Amino acid sequence: MKEKKVLSSELNISPHTQRIAFVGILTALALALSALELLIPAIPVLPPGAKLGLSNIVTMYAAGAVGLGPALAIAVVKGLFSGLMRGFTAMMMSLAGGMASTFVMWLLLKVKKNPFGLVGLGVGGALTHNAAQLLVAAVLTTPAIVYYIPWLIIFGILTGILTGLVLKTVMPLLNKLS
User: Coil, strand or helix: which one is 100?
Assistant: First the structure.
């Protein structure tokens, strides 16, 4: 027996409902990647709490695919999740970094003829994320945290390149999902 593929139009699902469902899927994906990152052990030469930023791939994609509002909502949910998993300081740093980087990535996507592509988008997002987190860390701990700036710039560039390349690779799959 052949299975018939049911289209959303046959089910009378509105585009608004489809969009909400898609944002929900993206949010779940961001949380899954965030949880996966918690399983990766800390690398000794990196600043404390440094992560690859895999879940930022989702907010980077969302900023372009569904817009600033939903992308910021995903960043907020990720920040709250971080608070549940790692505590108040991690939540504040995640919220600041996630929201600032999502906004900057959205702005970069608005630039016509962006010469840097998705890799530049990833680097811009990662550097913004690190800068916002550094500001929060300086307020919550000590201004001496600024000594991490060189490490955060290097790590931000490397992880930004990584996330940009990963997004470039999975973009066709994500576009099929939408």
Answer: helix
